[in-house]
C-alpha cells in the first residue's frame, strides 16, 4: 500500500475563500483612535509654548518681586468672620451646654469650694440663663409653686381611680 502525504490544501470539496484585494484598493474603516499623550509630552508640557512659538511661557516661580520678611515678626492677618445672630433658644442652649459651667456646677454639688473668680463667673452665667428663660417664658420647675391637694380625701380619690383603671384593664 502506498503512503499519501497529508497536505493542508482543501481540495475541490472545500469552501472557496474570497480573493485577496490589493492594499491600495482596500477601504480604511476609520481612523485609529488616539489614546494617551503624544510622544515626548513629558519633556515638552503643553502649556510651555505660546501661540506664536517665539516665546516660551514664563515660569511663575522664578523672579517674584514680592518682598520676603527675613525676621521673626511675621504677622498674618486673619479674615474677620461676621458673627451670626443667634436666636434666644440657641443662645440658651449654648449657655446650658458650656463645659466649664457644667464642671463648676458639679463641683458645687460635690460640696467643693470655688475660687472667687469662678464663683463670680458662675453667677454671671446663671443670671444670663435666668434672664433668657424669663424672656422665653420658660419657668423653672424648682421655683414654681406647685399646688397639690395632699389631703386624705384627695389621695383616697386618686387611689380609687387607679383601682378602677386596673380592674378595667384586667377585664380586657
Automatic annotation (TrEMBL):
Q: Which one GO biological process term can you cite for this protein?
A: ribosome biogenesis
Quote the biased-composition stretches of kind Polar residues, using this chain's numbering. 36-53
* Location of the region described as Disordered in the Swiss-Prot/TrEMBL record: 1-70
Sorted alphabetically, the keyword list is: GTPase activation, Ribosome biogenesis
GO MF, one annotated term: GTPase activator activity
Family matches, as Pfam families: YihI (PF04220)
- Compositional bias (Basic and acidic residues): 22-35
The membrane-spanning stretches of this chain are none
| Top-level taxonomic group | Bacteria
Described purpose of this protein according to its UniProt entry: A GTPase-activating protein (GAP) that modifies Der/EngA GTPase function. May play a role in ribosome biogenesis.
| Family listed | Belongs to the YihI family.
What is known about its subunit structure? Answer: Interacts with Der.
This chain belongs to the protein called Der GTPase-activating protein YihI
Q: Specify the species.
A: Shewanella fodinae
Per UniProt, what is the name of the gene that codes for the protein in this document?
A: yihI
